[in-house]
Amino acid sequence: MASQRPTPSALRRRFPPVKDLRELMKFEKPTIDITGRRLAKATNVWELRKIAKRRTPTAPFDYVDGAAENEISLNRARMAYRDLEFNPGVLRDVSDADLSTEIFGDRVSMPLAIAPTGFTRMMQTEGEYAGSAAAADKGIPFCLSTMGTASLEDVAAHTPDGNNWFQLYLWKDREASKELVQRAWDAGYRKLIVTVDTAIAGARLRDIRNGFSIPPQLTWKTVLDASYRPAWWFNFLTTEQLSFASLSRSSGTVAELVDRMFDPALTFDDIDWIRELWPGTLICKGLQTVEDSQRVLDHGADGIILSNHGGRQLDRAPVPLHLLPKVRQAVGEEVTIGLDTGIMDGADIAAAVALGADYTLVGRAYVYGLMAGGQRGVARMLDIMEDQMRRTMRLCGVTKVSELTPDHVTLKTSEAASGYWI
Predict the structure, then answer these.
(1) Any signal peptide, and if so, which residues (predicted)?
(2) Domain contains 35
(3) Which of the following is catalytic: 158, 299, 309, 408?
């Protein structure tokens, strides 16, 4: 029989002292800054996405959130990051971690850039102005898209202290493309990204279903959808009409704009042509094979970005993270490699760098932050990514970006994860 034990003094019933109650009853201070409170509570990019979805009409949100056809490419890219394993080193001094690195000779605060995105001011009225400012404040590059809703000159004037890059879609009208490249140089841009995976537009079914266009076409459905998002509605009505600022204020449906702009006759000879035009750093984005990665370098590119366009072009495209080690081995250590598609966490950045990327780019994560809270939302996204990457590095026993190596990551290939895709 168990012996009778006395009740410990800590478990004896008592009336709580007032001073103890005072310590427990620390309520959140009231604030009129609802957006700031929401952003502060977001602990990851997925929670920013939830805020963005509540605040943004369906058509613009789906343009950001969706991908081509069955969205398999995007889901596989995200699963690649979820499936990998980190191999942490222990018993290292990880009092802090320095995330800074160099991209094309420029010192940046972490190996991350904001990717070029189109239609951006439709998602939230601050658009590229918010993205470029948040990037400049964080000390990372910002990439302006040809299909952006702020002009080359306006973004450069807004963030003269920023590391601003320009992304080019080659038009069928080569003279117009030449003029756009010259505008970029004259406005102070020194990094030119040429996107090479858009010979034709992918089938983005969410956009087709939503009838997505610029400027947005008002129907009873779109008015009703926007009516319970008053901030978006107010911003849309009280700011400059949306248009593609680099395209002479062009408008139309997404499909019409793409068919009018993209050139299905684009070849490697056009990379030679751009190389002759552009005196700055030339980067090719949208590489999805080892062979093509090597060929664009042979045609004058200074760097490459492994990307399947965020899953928005060819569905079932290669996963950039899986391709990365092969490309790095083929092109050598001196070539600057960027990587995008599927990155939603600072740990994803750490994994990509470990496997051979010099830097990464985020598009959806950036716009989720933008839709959640304008420039402050983008800044919050970058802070989250930075904290996640720093914590991941320290837990892996690493204190510098240069110390991340393939030994820190076990990458499961698509074959190993095939059970997810049956």
Answers:
(1) none
(2) no
(3) 309
